[in-house]
Amino acid sequence: MRPFKISAAVGRLAVAAVAMSIGMAAVPAEAETRFTITVDTGPNHIRNITLRVFMERLTEATGGELVGELFESAQLYAARDEARAVARGDVQMSVTTNSALSAFASDLNALDMPLFVGLTPEQLSRIIDGPFGQMLADRVANQLGVVVPGRWFLLGYADTFGAGRDFGSFEDYQGARVRIFGGAAFISRLAALGAEGLAIPFPDVPLALSQGTIDGLLTTSETVRSGQLYESGVKSAFTDNAAVLFYIPIVNKAFLDGLSEAHRAAFLEAWDSVIDEQRSEALRRQAEARIHNEANGIVYTDPTPEELAAANEKLQAIVPSLISELNVDPAVIELARQQAAAAN
User: 94: domain CATH number?
Assistant: First the structure.
């Protein structure tokens, strides 16, 4: 696999810029096609880091003719608004959580249901790369009129982090207000555990934590670390492995269709070239982030297998009603169950 060499790539781009300024050989301005990517996480997040690598490889592969520009930290849009912006063509691309996209493609709610309990991120990644993931990608593309250009980024396990109260057991959910990143299934999950789920854009989370608007949040160790949320009051973590989170790439269809065949192929190849690296790095950073967060005062509690089994039994009971309430195609649920059983 090609290593991430961000600094070297940035250096090459800087040299090219100097060359242009002094009249050396450079790509003519009229040959350059620029496109915009919007995300709501900050520069040090694995999603952002990988997107910069993707853009650098694409620019290199096209001789400077396709140039991406990354807008970070919700400078342009909150996660809940990214899909509409891409579909309209206000921006050309986003890489958005599967939970945020479930508002537009209801079948994605299956990923947030307790259908894959016990599977590792690696196992679920293989399922996402197969017929189940392709079915979901097709639903996203059809519902939004966008293109899903390939495999998805992996983020990792979503756990519950506490600020206004400590989370160290499933009993601690009673009466708690927990921020979620989207996904109606998570609201139902929290309700079944006795808590209230609140969808709050990520840039607003530090203020919500410090002001006591929420008692905690459902997220990953990497996101806590990259956002330094321990500085906003996060002090506990309960590793309930609520779900494995992914980021789904979506591209404006008119933009991608308007590229030359060579540029479109380069776009797809550059995207695929970063996926395996990203997933490996995401898992490494999640493990590293836990150590970092613990060093900054966050106390982690790992539930016992018995505690997880008891909670899962309670959560499994709500699946039939979720399928109906969230308008998830039973065929999607059936394929999910088949794939989960085969993976174990």
Answer: 3.40.190.170
Closest by Cα among 247, 252, 211 to 232: 211
20 within a domain of the structure (yes/no):
no
Give residue 183's pLDDT band: very low, low, confident or very high (50, 70, 90): confident
**Distance set, CA 108 to CA 92, 93, 132 (Å):** 22, 19, 11
310 is a domain residue: yes
Contacts of 306-313 with C-beta under 8 Å, sequence gap 24+, read 307/169, 307/170, 308/117, 308/240, 308/241, 310/170, 311/170, 311/193, 311/240, 312/114, 312/117
Buried b (16+ CB within 10 A) or exposed e, 241-261: bbbbbbbbbbbbbebbeebee
Q: Does 26 score more than 70 pLDDT?
A: no
Q: Do residues 249 and 225 touch, judged by C-beta distance below 8 A?
A: no
How many folded domains does the chain comprise? 1
Token pair, residue 243, equals 């779900």
- In this predicted structure, the answer to whether residue 192 has a pLDDT above a threshold of 70 is yes
Under the banding of pLDDT at 50, 70 and 90, the label for residue 341 is very high
Domain annotation covers residue 18: no
DSSP string, 286-304: HHHHHHHHHHTTPEEEPPP
Over range 250-273, report the average pLDDT. Answer: 98
d(CA 183, CA 74): 19
Query: Quick check: is 174 in a domain?
Result: yes
| Mean pLDDT of all residues in 316-325 | 94
Domain range for 169 is 31-343
What are the residues whose beta carbons fall under 8 Å from the beta carbon of 35, sequence distance 6 or more? 66, 67, 68, 69, 92, 93, 255
- The reported pLDDT for the residue numbered 277 is 97
| Both tokens assigned to 336 | 């999910």
